[in-house]
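Objective 1b: paired records.
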Amino acid sequence: MSRRLSTVDPSKKWSGPTRKYDLVKEFVIAFLVIAVAALTLAGLFSSPDEKAITLQSWSKAAPADFVQTAAGELAGTTTSASYGPPYNNAADGQKILGISPAKVVGVHIPINPAQSFVIEPLKISADVPTRAAIDAWNSAPEKVRTGWATAYADALAKDGKATSLADTKNEYGPVPTLVTSLLAMAKSGGLDGALTTSDTNMPTNFTKPLLFLADGGTYFSDLASAQHLGGDQWGVMNETGSWPGQSWLWLYSFWYQIDPFKSSEDADVLVMTLMGVLSLLLVFLPLIPGLRKIPYLIPVHRLIWKKWYRRSSKS
């Protein structure tokens, strides 16, 4: 049974009331009002954006955290070492219905943390002791290298504040020299440049610096929490500080705050899949039986257009 929404014949010329409307004038006025408001607010409050966090600023602000992370990269115990695709095959990645989308795509940005974040950058401008340390590292068996780096990382973590430790028992191999040289390189700003240009001459690929920074202990996460950007702080929709953020992203962030997404290791892929399904339902709403009847069952549109319906019922 079809429902008639209007008694107006679309083939007939409109004979109802009209009103002059200058679209260009309205546009110019709206543009000027918004421009004045934007410039005024920008002058009063400036930009809410913080200065970019770099490996240089990290190494200067929290050198102990930096060297612990560097030792962890050599030991293969950081997050990026066990991330899985697209960086390595150490894990399958998040799954949905038993399928891992990341594994299907495979490794297409190969990264070996020890080589990519420590050894390769140090080769660019290494002094004699550092070059000797690199040679000693590369020539040692993998099991020996892991033992050196793990022992040094554990010793640094136990101390908590040291940026270098003496190898009195000869159990760290070349790791102290490598880590100390990397810290000096980071403080000079050279490590940022080395990692962003390792795969291209244009310094536009920040994948490696971001992965290295994300592998850090507490420095980066503490900064994020202080700015209310943590995942449990609805960080995906927040702006730095107390500024309002991207409010249209609240629906994505909402799912991360409730179970089963909140406690799931596959939260990202589950949330994105759910949002994809909801988006498709919205797009195809007019074609879905039952759902397309909702406007008739809940006639909110009649409240919005009540004047039109009142006049239409009288004609």
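Objective 1b, second protein:
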Amino acid sequence: MAEEINYTFRDINSCEMCGAGLLKLKVLGKRLNKSQGINPKRKTGIFSTIVKCSDCGLIFSNPQPVPQNISDHYNISPDNYWKEEQLKQNDNFFLGFISWLKNLIVIKDGIKALDVGAGLGTFMECLQKENIDAYGMEPSEFFFKTIIERKEISRDKIKNVSIENAEYPENYFDFICFGAVLEHLYNPADAINKAMKWLKPNGVIFIEVPNADWLTSKLINFYYKITSPGYVCNLSPMHNPYHLYEFTLTSFQKFCSRYGYEIADHDYDVCKTFLPKYFDFILKPYMKLTKKGMIMEVWLRKK
């Protein structure tokens, strides 16, 4: 029997990233609190309404379902969250990312980095191997305990806290990472602005988020439009992985213009297509060429 989760629902009256008002929020469709499969209209469940900002393309649920206890979503064992091979240390993990970082800031003695949502601590270990003074925060107690038990990370460098409740000195870090974090937060703009206070001038924040222009979503939504009108596949507000937002590059461009930051670089990862593999030889190159892969990566710089 599935565990019961109780929600309250919060109305959103403006776009989180660009600030556009309610009249700019277009309803895309409804999303079930479970996997919808190929025929969602034959399933029962609780629906959340999915909207899109017509000014910047941000996609989100409105109203947003808020669990009475956020740990209902995320306090699960890492062994159940990741596959066994993901739990093993990979010495080549994030090496391409480190190279990208070195193109944006000068890596020197004493440089400090913060990993928001440290997960299993793998990225923190990679940073330490580059002689970067790595800090991290992880809100899940299960993941936090796993870092302490399995990783060679000093206890005073990692906090069991959410970004909403975290505190660090201002102008302290040279680099901050939000890897697969912002899409889970109810106020991603507030989280970025808070982290910017901890960042030194000319420092960078890396952000990895779901791409609102992902081709697979568009294809599935076209299929739903024909077979199950009113449904969309975007997001998963009330089921794993509990995504609340999908972002576009325009979302971040307008956000930076709004708050006085700049985009230092960006890219897209195709990742999996989640479609029949015999289509991959066509779809993957097309997604890469048209920037319609599943993941968007953005670097923001503090001026």
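The chain has two domains: 7-68+213-246, 84-211+250-301. Residues 82-87 have pLDDT under 50 and may be disordered.
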